Amino acid sequence: MQRRRFLKQGLRVAAGAAAISTLGLGLVGCGFHLRGYGDTVPALEALAVSGPNDDFTPVVRETLARSGTRIDDQAALRLNLSRATISETQQGLAGAGSRDIVLTLKAPFSVQRQANDAFLLDQQTLEVRERISVNDDELLAQDDTRRAARERLRDAAARQLLERLRPLAER
């Protein structure tokens, strides 16, 4: 009796997988694709960057340069970065000496025309989060985990900034 039930469940799973595969092939065949998937972010030709002397500003400069944007103090547009802050929120105990922490990076920014100081993007805030687990018994590893998570947060925020600047590049 159990064998029969097991075989019926296997047939249902196989039928479901076949239906999903058929649906996927149908979508591919009709030309469907995810919006933005595989598209490169159009780069601004040139951008002046002003910001505080912190760990986030160099990451933004490097990300912009990699995307093809020339960093130039005489550019028509200026990106104003404010100080990025990273906060930690403890989410509770994960078990025996370890705990989960949510790191949140917030970085305010704006974009202005250099000619007349008109704001194209007025005081917006980038916000990215990451959850990490740390063990209270391994303090050195805990510091390394936090440091790596902060680097990933800065990289993610810089990529988010590129997405927010996309409409300016498409003009």
Textual characterization of the structure:
By secondary structure, the chain is of the alpha/beta class. Helix content is 41%, strand content 33%. It contains 3 helices and 6 strands; from the N terminus they run αβαβββββα.
Short summary of the structure?
By secondary structure, this protein is an alpha/beta fold. 41% of the residues lie in helices and 33% in strands.
**What's the average pLDDT?**
82
Radius of gyration: 23 Å
Number of strands: 6
Output the structural class: alpha/beta
As residue ranges, the low-confidence spans are none
Termini, distance in Å? 67 Å
Total helices: the number is 3
Order of helices and strands: HEHEEEEEH
Strand content: 25-35%
| Biggest pleated sheet | 6 strands, mixed
Instruction: Categorize the overall geometry.
Output: flat
- Binned, the helix content reads 40-55%
Features:
171 residues, alpha/beta, six-stranded mixed beta sheet, 3 helices, 41% helix, flat
SSE layout and pairing:
Elements (H helix, E strand, L loop, with lengths): L1 H28 L16 E5 L5 H11 L3 E2 L5 E5 L3 E11 L2 E16 L5 E17 L3 H31 L2
Parallel strand pairs: 1-2, 1-3
Antiparallel strand pairs: 3-5, 4-5, 5-6
Helix pairs in contact: 2-3
